[in-house]
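User: I'm putting together notes for a lab meeting next week and I want to include a structural view of one of the chains we've been expressing. I don't have a solved structure, so I'd like a prediction I can at least talk through. The sequence is below, exactly as it appears in our construct file.
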Amino acid sequence: MKHLLAAIAASAAFIAGPALAAGDDTPSFENGPVWDFGQIQTKDGHFDDYMKWVSTEWKAQEEALKKAGVIVDYKVYLVDHPRQGEPDILLAQEYKNMAAFDTPVAQQYAMQAKIAGSIVQSDKAQAARGSIRTVLGSVLVREAKLK
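Assistant: Thanks for the context. Below is the predicted structure for the 147-residue chain, given as structure tokens.
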């Protein structure tokens, strides 16, 4: 009987051992939403001018994108004491996942036209903002949801 119990215990250890080891190989996180951080550097004396645009036109654009289900949320972050060449404003957009970026270009243009008018109008407005800010680029990151 002792040998039988020992054999059962040994068998259980061999069966459970790989299952326990497999737990060590499982990821400690899941893919979360994707964030796009636009990096903006306002020109001297134009911070308030740019923030006025952000709080009106940009906000309206983001609300339209949110209502259409293109983005999940948006935020504005201000950088305290940016160093030379760094942004003083971050414009953040939250997307459900990377699949949000697989939208056909024609569909993107149609959404753009619905929100901001024609491409010509949009390009002119974008160029005009160049007098009060510089777009330094963007950073696309995926949030890691820790288990």
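A couple of points you could mention at the meeting. The chain is about 45% helix and 30% strand. The beta strands are 29-42, 73-78, 89-95, 133-146.

User: Perfect, that's what I needed.
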